Structure formats: structure tokens, C-alpha cells
Amino acid sequence: MMPKFAFYIMMVLLAQFAVAKGPNLVWFTEDYPPFNYHVNGQVEGIAIQALKLVYRDLGWKFDDNEVMLLPWPRAYQMTLSNNNACIFSMTYTEERARLFQFIGPTMDNHVAIIGHKETDYHLPNLRSIGDLKIGVVKNDIGHQLLRQLGVDKESLVFLASGFELVQMLKLKRIDLIAYGDVIARYQFKRAGINPKHYRIVMPLRSSYLGFACNKAIDKRIIDKMNDALKVIRGRQPEIFDPEYFYSQTE
């Protein structure tokens, strides 16, 4: 029979191991550079770096196999329907805050309608779209903002990713895209398109990017992660700068 003292020590060690392992969370993401994207079978980017630092600072074990890169519409629905799921990078809105618990900010995100620089599109308001077609990713912030602002579905062209948005814009299969400005510029570069040939036609929303979790996850976990992220942002603000990130990865 195990002595009481030895049993006590074993229970303490098991408790410490359980804490170190961390919460049982599954993370969904999409191709959204420079914040999250696929490289050689691994998810890389500013957001995943920040997430790993949060886990490290909290003494939790991070498992890369718990991160799945999917098309945004599927990732969004998977997070809503799984009690232990989180998603990144997501732009904060009040509508989304009713559906998810947010961890953030990681950095600012300016969402806009973007078009060719040489076009003379003038959109004083979204009622003046006329026959123009706007490319969006379903349930992306650009799509949700246009929907909230009353843009007809017939004016939208749904594409699978930001990479497809910029490609279709270059080919003039669509007239405009609604997307995050920083992310669009990096997608242009990845597609071999000069971002200087495009401009913001109409700003839509300035907000921030962060991590978003299913409402069923214990709020104490969310609070711990928020506190850790705040410390990291104060300690290493440069890692949240896209230009700094790319200078370290080139």
C-alpha cells in the first residue's frame, strides 16, 4: 500500500501535469496572411506566433496538431458548433461578440472596399453600387459588413479565399472586393500583383483582430489568455507588426 506522503506527492505532480497540459481546445484558422497561413504543412504567421507565446506564458503545452486550416466559412461554422473550438484571426464586431468570446486585440484591422487604382468608381454610399460586383469570402468581415449595410446578395460574388479575391479582381471578373486592407496587400504580393495598382474605394470599418472562442468555453480560460496576451503585447509589441514579421521570415 502506498504511504500517504508518497500518494500526496503523486497527486500534486499529476495536478501540475494537468495544469501544464492546458485546456482541451481545438483551433481553426484560414489562409489570411500575414496573420495565419500554410507553409510546408504547418500554420505560420503573426497570430500563431502570438498564440504559442500565450500558451508558453501560461505554462500550457501547445500542440500544432490542434490547429486546422480550413476555408473561412467552414472554420466559422465549426467554431460555432463545437464547444471546445476557437478561431483566428477574427475581426471584432458587436454582432460577433454575441456569438463568440474574444481574446485580443492582436492588431488593428481596417476593412474596406478595394478596387483598381485607374477606375473612377465613386461610392458616396452603398446605394450607389449599381451593377458593380463585389467579391467577398462568405462570413468574412467584409461580407458581414456589406450584409449589415443592406447590400443585395445579387451584388456579391462569393469566393473561397482572399487569394482568389485579388486574382479575380486583377482579371476583372469582379469590380471590387470587400476585405481587410493589410491582408489584401499581402495577398496581392503573394499573387504576384503590385498592390500599388489598387486603392481603397470606400472604408467600411476599423476594428481589431483577435482570437474568438465558442461561448461554451470556461470564461476563466478566456480571461487567462486575455491577460497573457496583454502582457505579451506590452513586452514584445514588434511581433504584432506585419513588416517586422516578414523581415524575420524572409
Low-confidence runs: 4-19
Taking the alpha carbons of the first and last residues, their distance comes to: 59 Å
Helix content: 25-40%
Q: How big a fraction of the residues is strand?
A: 25-35%
Please provide the ordered H/E string of secondary-structure elements. HEEEHEHEHEEHEHEHEHH
Rg (CA only): 21 Å
Major sheet strand order: 4-1-5-10-6-9-7-8
Question: In words, what does this structure look like?
Answer:
With 250 residues, this protein is an alpha/beta fold. Helix content is 39%, strand content 27%. The chain has 9 helices and 10 strands. The chain has helices at residues 4-21, 46-58, 72-81, 94-97, 141-148, 162-170, 181-190, 219-235, 242-249; strands at 26-29, 37-39, 42-44, 67-69, 85-91, 100-116, 134-137, 156-159, 176-180, 198-214. The strands form 2 sheets. Strands 4-1-5-10-6-9-7-8 form an 8-stranded mixed sheet, sandwiched between helices. Strands 2-3 form a two-stranded antiparallel ribbon. Strand 7, helix 5 (141-148) and strand 8 (156-159) form a beta-alpha-beta unit. Helix 2 (46-58) packs across helix 8. It is globular, with a radius of gyration of 21 Å. The model is unreliable at 4-19 (pLDDT under 50).
Question: Notable features of this structure?
Answer:
alpha/beta; two-stranded antiparallel ribbon; single chain; globular; 9 helices; eight-stranded mixed beta sheet; 250 residues
List the helices and strands and how they pair.
Blueprint: H1 4-21, E1 26-29, E2 37-39, E3 42-44, H2 46-58, E4 67-69, H3 72-81, E5 85-91, H4 94-97, E6 100-116, E7 134-137, H5 141-148, E8 156-159, H6 162-170, E9 176-180, H7 181-190, E10 198-214, H8 219-235, H9 242-249
Parallel strand pairs: 1-4, 1-5, 7-8, 7-9
Antiparallel strand pairs: 2-3, 5-10, 6-9, 6-10
Helix pairs in contact: 2-8, 6-7
